[in-house]
Amino acid sequence: MKDFFLSIIIPVYEEGEALAESIRTIDGVLAPLEIRREFILVDDGSTDQSWQVIKELAQEVPGVCGLRFTRNFGKEAAIFAGLAVMNGDACVVMDADLQHPPALIPEMVRLWREEGYQVVEGVKRTRGQEGLKNKICATLFYRLLKSFSGIDLNNATDFKLLDKRVVSALLQMEERNTFFRGMANWVGYKRASIPFDVPARQVGKSKWSTWGLFKLAVNAITSFSSMPLQIVTMLGVLFLLGSFLLGIQTLYMKIKGVAVSGFTTVILLQLIVGSTLMISFGIIGTYIARIFDEVKARPRYLLAETFNVKDSAND
Ligand code: UDP
Ligand code: MG
């Protein structure tokens, strides 16, 4: 297997404490495979000693390359920065906190080398020690995404092995608001999945806030489906039908000489229609905001510093 070249891409944000240990562990798992490897560590604007640790690691572990963003651009941007500079025949994208078990990598590599799978995904068997709120929100999100876009990402993770052809397909997708998990599914290719149990985080804590997750979810749904817009249209049609029936009834009552009463109905209708309109504007507005983001065509990230990285790294 010596002639294969594997890139390990790891987004790093405030992981100073655990990073060195993680890389050593991953390197230890890969060593017996005797494959050429590089570690692309993308520092997503950490304020702790992460960048220092990355530079020190480069002295200790062969094949460590570093990229540092000018600020925190998010995990998605960090993954794409890694994809843009990787040199391997395939890459493995994984977290810095060992919540993506490195022990799975040899099996991923085997499926890729021996069985010709171009995408090998780590899929959560259990959702680890997540809170109930997270579990409910995640289930709801994946259901919505599936029924809107047909893309089934339930229990999918960012832990993936991708062949370099898949990587170049991903790099052709020029959207600014990326959703790696969805995009890696959208491209197709021959795929396999490996189930795993998510271990608890050893050091530090998860960087995701509820608001951050909500933004990711909205981003994912608006990127992969225009169904919410169709729902707005369908609601409009439904309301029109309703008002048509109500209109006929009102006219009939009028002809029969029964005075039309119904203050409550009027108020309720106003409130229902008013709030539905506002939600609809919100949905349309969200798509317009997405279009605005895309036409501005700003870079996905800006690099402050790199080492051991081929040029043209800035996206
Ligand atoms: N991460 C990042 N930028 C961010 C937040 C997180 O690059 O703004 C990285 C982080 O360093 C880790 C991975 O994304 O390697 C997963 O983050 P975390 O463990 O906080 O998320 P969780 O495991 O809860 O999904
Ligand atoms: Mg984690």
TrEMBL record:
InterPro entries registered for this protein in UniProt: Glyco_trans_2-like, Glycosyltransferase_2, Nucleotide-diphossugar_trans
Intracellular or extracellular location(s): Membrane
One GO cellular component term noted in the UniProt record for this chain: plasma membrane
PANTHER family noted in UniProt: PROPHAGE BACTOPRENOL GLUCOSYL TRANSFERASE HOMOLOG, UNDECAPRENYL-PHOSPHATE 4-DEOXY-4-FORMAMIDO-L-ARABINOSE TRANSFERASE-RELATED
Record-linked CDD domains: DPM1_like_bac (cd04187)
Domain of life of the native organism: Bacteria
Chief localization: membrane
TM region(s), chain numbering: 231-252, 258-289
Protein name: Glycosyltransferase family 2 protein
Topology in the lipid bilayer: Multi-pass membrane protein
SUPFAM superfamilies xref list: Nucleotide-diphospho-sugar transferases
One Pfam family in the UniProt entry: Glycos_transf_2
Domain Glycosyltransferase 2-like: from-to ranges: 7-137
Record bears the keyword 4Fe-4S: no
Stretches assigned to coiled coil: none
